[in-house]
Every structure is written in structure tokens, then in C-alpha cells.
């Protein structure tokens, strides 16, 4: 199946370099992220895919010595996410993130999801309840937790915790969701639920996902980028990358010919 | 086509065994076709039986290879060139098996003609020429698969046009004979069946070659006319 419509840009990396101190971890990345599509980043460990992902919501700002060069343009307003005038907190309102291991706060289920809204200054109980319910429904976990909202979130199963984290990310209505190996700590059933959810989510939000599971990239994404040693080797439609990649290095990686 | 080895040597072995089996099957089909053509020329009806027996082995191999393909897909989830190889093979064996069936049809047609009397000599040359061309196409298609040689595959595809033209000209001749002398109709119809089977063998060789191009280049050139094979 081919993707027929012409996608619009949601974000675009332009000549992006990134340094951990002296170590250049990203080398001149140029890559589009299309609106309401799922883009998968694949590549061997240490290839820079998580580094790239984390550049989008300025996670690297938390450590001294890290340095960006180039731009990540965010649309429709054409903001440079890496610009010094951009507040990382504001960025993270628009760009949510879900990590490898589910990391619910040691709070109730309700408060986990309401947290981002409270940080934003929302105090109206009614609004909070509505938005929490909406986010939990969006993360396909509402039916399982609607009667246990005051319970402690860490008591949920791993798969439920991860969907709760997705609900938490959804609560602030982000435009872009970053997933950093969201299912690598989950069993196949929970993984299936998350993948199904990603499919639903892309109707309203753009998704960028790092995964070590190639079949997962093939299943969930519309576009795939293969990274190696900090470089973007190949970017293309997932259908094409997995049937007929253009670059020998991509071919070797996805067919399991490279260590 | 990617010739580097996989991290999993078991996977390499699976794929290499698969290719070997396809070539084995191809070898059997080639023998069938060649024997059928010989039977036509010599009237050796005895070989008809062995052609039919070989067909049973060809059928078994087709099923075994398809089963191996299913196992590789289930266990290895092949991608890119590996995926194309497995998909291509699954289609190639279908065409090989059908080419074997056509050889069987030739053999049975030959038996009918010779059992009913003699092969009228005027049909000999055209059919044999057509048959040699089809046999050569099958050989080259298998060669192209063995070496993943797309140039050879393309030349097989181009050769199919000649076989088609020759087939039509034989049919025209036979129609003329039948109109001139209705007593030749029974034999002529058997010969048409044989010519048709030979022409089909050429088509199957062409299909195999198209799959070779898909496996190597990732281009699906089926139903695109011979320009696609330039």
C-alpha cells in the first residue's frame, strides 16, 4: 500500500549537529517530520537516534557541556526549537515524551494525568476532570482505570503504566509525541495495545518513535529513518525502506547482516 | 542482491537451502521439457511415463519449497532483499511446476499422435524450433536465478516475443492444413495442444525471469510490456 496524500511538514531538522562535550553525536542531520504521521528512527545502539529524539524537546539542556548546532524547525509557526529565545518548558507543552520504562509519578492515577495541567496553572476541578478523562480515553486506558482514579499509579501493571504515561503526555494536547522505545519493557500483549494506540493517536498528533524492534517500526510507522554513527543514512516511506532500501547500509541493518 | 552473511548463520543456511531446492526443482522441470521434446521428435513413447513420474517429484518439491518459505517468513520475518527472495521463490516455483505440467501435456499429446499412427513430417521442423527456443528460455531463466543475473533475465523476457510470434505462425499453418484437408484435423488439434504447451513454457520462463528482476532490483515489471525489460 502506498501513501497517497502529500504530507505537510510538522517539523524539520536542518543541518543539525549535536555535541556531548567534545563528542559529536549527531552529524548534519536533515530530515522532515510529517504532520499526523508516524516516523520511526531505527539504527544500532549508539547511532544517535535517542540523542536526535531528545533534541526535539530540549532534554539535552539539562546537562552542561551539551551543544546544538543547526535548527529544528517546528510548524506551522516555523519556530526554531533550538533557538536560545525558546523556553524549553513551553516546548515540552507542545511536544510530549514517553520513555522506555514506564515512569509514573508516585501519585494517584488522576494526579499523574492532571500534573501537566496543574503546572500550566489549571485549577478548575471540573476542567481537570474532563481533561483527565479525555486523555485517559485517548490513551485507551480509561475503561481499565475509571473506577480506580484515586489509586496509586505505581500499582498498575507495566502496560497500564505505560499507557498512563501516554495519557499524561496527551493531557496537555501536544502536537508532537516522542516515543523512546516505548514497548521494550513490555510483554507482547501490552506491546500490541501500545502499537494499536499509536495507530489511533496519529489521527490527531504527529509521532516520532525510536525503536530497536524493526518489525515494530515496519508495523507502526509511515516513514522510517535509518541512522548510523550519528548520521542519517536513509529516510523514506516505511513501505519502501523495508522492501527496497536504497542504501546498502540500511539493507544490511534491516536484514540482520550487521552487528 | 545482498551477498553479505547474516548475523544468524542459521538464516543464511535456510535461504541457501531454499535456493538449492529451487534449482533442483528447476533441473527436474528442464529434464521434463527436454524429454517431451525428444519424444516428439523420436516417437519414444516410453519416455512419456518417466515425464509423468518426474512431475510427481516436481509437485512434491513445489509444496516443500512453499512450506519452507512459510517457515522462513514466520520465524525470520525477512525484509528487503531477503523478503524479495522468499516472495520471488514462492512465485517462481508456481511457474516451474506449471511448466512441468505443460511438459506432461506435450508428452501426452505425443503419445496420442503416435498411437494413432505416424507423426506427419511437415509439422516437425516448426514445432522443434519452437520447442528448442522455449527449452533454452527455461534453462536461461534458471541460470539467471542461480546467478541472480538480471541481464540474462531480461534477454529471456525479450526472447518470449519471438516464441509467441513463432507459435502464431505455426497455428496459421495448421489452420491452412486443416482447411485444405479435413482428415488432418485430429492430428492438427493434438499438435496445436503441443504448440500451445510449448508457448506456455516460454511464458513461465518469462515469469521466472521477471521474478529474478524483482528479487535483485526490487522492480515489479509484470504486465508492463517488453519495454520494461530493456
Word description of this protein:
The complex is a heterodimer of chains A (259) and B (230). In chain A, strands 6-7-8-3-9-10 form a six-stranded mixed beta sheet, sandwiched between helices. Chain A has a four-stranded antiparallel beta sheet with strand order 2-1-4-5, covered by helices on one side. Chain A has helices at 49-56, 88-94, 109-119, 125-138, 142-145, 158-170, 188-201, 214-220, 238-243, 248-254, and strands at 9-20, 23-34, 38-42, 66-74, 79-80, 95-98, 176-180, 206-210, 223-228, 231-237. Chain A has ten helices and ten strands. Chain A has a single domain, classed as Rossmann fold, CATH 3.40.50. Chain A is globular and about 55 Å long. In chain A, α4 (125-138) crosses α6 (158-170) and α6 (158-170) packs parallel to α7 (188-201). The longest helix of chain A has 14 residues, at 125-138. Chain B has a single domain (9-229), classed as Up-down Bundle (Methane Monooxygenase Hydroxylase, Chain G, domain 1). Chain B is built from six helices and no strands. In chain B, α3 (80-115) packs antiparallel against α6 (185-217), α4 runs antiparallel to α5 (150-180) and α5 runs antiparallel to α6. The radius of gyration of chain B is 19 Å and the shape is elongated. The two termini of chain B are 19 Å apart.
The main β sheet of chain B shows up as: none
**CATH architecture group name of chain A:** 3-Layer(aba) Sandwich
Rounded to the nearest angstrom, the distance between the terminal CA atoms of chain A is 31 Å
Poorly predicted runs of chain A: none
Low-confidence stretches of chain B: none
Question: What general outline of chain A do the C-alpha atoms trace?
Answer: globular
Task: Give the terminus-to-terminus CA distance of chain B.
Answer: 19 Å
Percent strand of chain B equals under 5%
Number of domains of chain B: 1
Bin the helical content of chain A. 25-40%
Shape of chain B: elongated
Biggest interface between protein chains, with counts per chain? Answer: A-B, 17 and 16 residues
CATH topology of chain A: Rossmann fold
- Count of discrete alpha- or pi-helical segments spanning 4 or more residues of chain A: 10
Oligomer: heterodimer
Helix-strand category of chain B: mainly alpha
Helix/strand/pairing category of chain A: alpha/beta
Helix content of chain B: over 70%
Number of strands of chain A: 10
Element-level helix/strand string of chain B: HHHHHH
Classified in CATH, the superfamily of chain B is: Phosphate transport system protein phou homolog 2, domain 2
Amino acid at each position: 500500500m502506498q501513501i497517497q496524500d502529500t504530507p505537510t511538514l510538522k517539523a524539520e531538522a536542518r543541518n543539525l549537529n549535536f555535541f556531548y562535550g567534545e563528542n559529536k553525536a549527531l552529524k548534519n542531520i536533515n530530515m522532515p517530520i510529517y504532520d499526523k504521521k508516524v516516523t520511526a528512527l531505527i539504527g544500532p545502539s549508539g547511532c544517535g537516534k535517542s540523542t536526535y529524539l531528545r533534541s526535539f524537546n530540549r532534554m539535552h539542556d539539562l546537562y552542561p557541556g551539551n551543544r546544538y548546532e543547526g535548527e529544528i524547525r517546528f510548524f506551522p509557526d516555523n519556530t526554531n526549537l533550538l533557538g536560545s529565545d525558546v523556553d524549553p518548558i513551553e516546548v515540552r507543552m507542545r511536544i510530549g515524551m514517553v520513555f522506555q520504562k514506564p515512569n509514573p509519578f508516585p501519585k494517584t492515577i488522576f494526579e499523574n494525568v492532571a500534573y501537566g495541567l496543574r503546572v500550566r496553572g489549571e485549577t478548575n476541578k471540573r476542567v481537570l476532570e474532563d481533561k483527565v478523562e479525555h486523555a485517559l480515553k485517548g490513551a485507551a486506558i480509561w475503561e481499565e482505570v475509571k473506577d480506580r482514579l484515586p489509586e496509586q499509579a505505581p500499582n498498575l501493571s507495566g502496560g497500564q503504566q505505560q499507557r498512563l504515561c501516554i495519557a499524561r503526555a496527551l493531557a496537555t494536547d501536544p502536537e508532537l509525541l516522542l516515543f523512546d522505545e516505548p514497548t521494550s519493557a513490555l510483554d507482547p500483549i501490552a506491546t500490541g495495545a501500545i502499537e494499536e494506540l499509536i495507530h489511533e493517536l496519529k489521527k490527531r498528533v504527529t509521532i516520532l518513535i525510536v525503536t530497536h524492534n524493526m518489525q515494530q517500526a515496519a508495523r507502526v510507522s509511515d516513514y522510517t529513518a535509518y541512522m548510523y554513527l550519528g548520521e542519517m543514512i536513509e529516510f523514506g516511506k516505511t513501505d519502501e525502506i523495508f522492501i527496497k532500501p536504497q542504501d546498502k547500509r540500511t539493507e544490511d541493518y534491516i536484514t540482520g547482516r550487521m552487528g | 542482491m545482498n551477498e553479505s552473511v547474516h548475523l544468524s548463520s542459521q538464516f543464511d543456511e535456510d535461504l541457501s537451502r531454499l535456493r538449492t531446492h529451487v534449482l533442483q526443482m528447476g533441473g527436474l522441470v528442464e529434464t521434463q521439457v527436454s524429454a517431451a521434446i525428444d519424444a516428439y521428435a523420436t516417437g519414444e513413447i516410453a519416455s512419456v511415463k518417466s515425464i509423468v513420474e518426474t512431475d510427481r517429484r516436481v509437485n512434491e518439491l513445489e509444496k516443500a519449497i512453499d512450506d519452507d518459505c512459510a517457515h522462513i517468513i514466520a520465524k525470520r520475518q525477512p525484509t528487503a532483499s531477503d523478503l524479495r527472495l522468499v516472495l520471488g521463490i514462492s512465485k517462481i516455483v508456481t511457474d516451474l511446476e506449471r511448466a512441468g505440467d505443460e511438459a506432461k501435456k506435450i508428452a501426452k499429446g505425443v503419445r496420442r499422435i503416435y498411437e494413432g499412427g505416424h507423426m506427419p513430417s511437415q509439422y516437425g521442423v516448426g514445432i522443434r524450433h519452437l520447442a528448442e527456443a522455449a527449452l533454452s528460455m527455461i534453462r536461461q531463466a534458471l541460470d539467471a536465478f542461480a546467478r541472480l543475473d538480471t541481464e540474462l533475465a531480461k534477454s529471456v523476457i525479450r526472447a518470449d516475443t519471438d516464441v509467441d510470434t513463432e507459435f502464431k505462425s505455426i497455428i496459421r499453418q495448421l489452420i491452412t492444413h486443416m482447411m485444405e484437408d479435413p482428415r488432418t484435423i485430429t492430428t492438427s488439434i493434438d499438435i496445436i495442444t503441443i504448440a500451445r504447451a510449448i508457448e506456455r513454457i516460454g511464458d513461465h520462463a518469462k515469469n521466472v525471469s521477471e521474478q529474478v528482476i524483482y528479487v535483485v532490483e526490487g522492480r515489479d515489471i509484470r504486465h508492463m510490456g517488453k519495454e520494461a525489460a530493456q
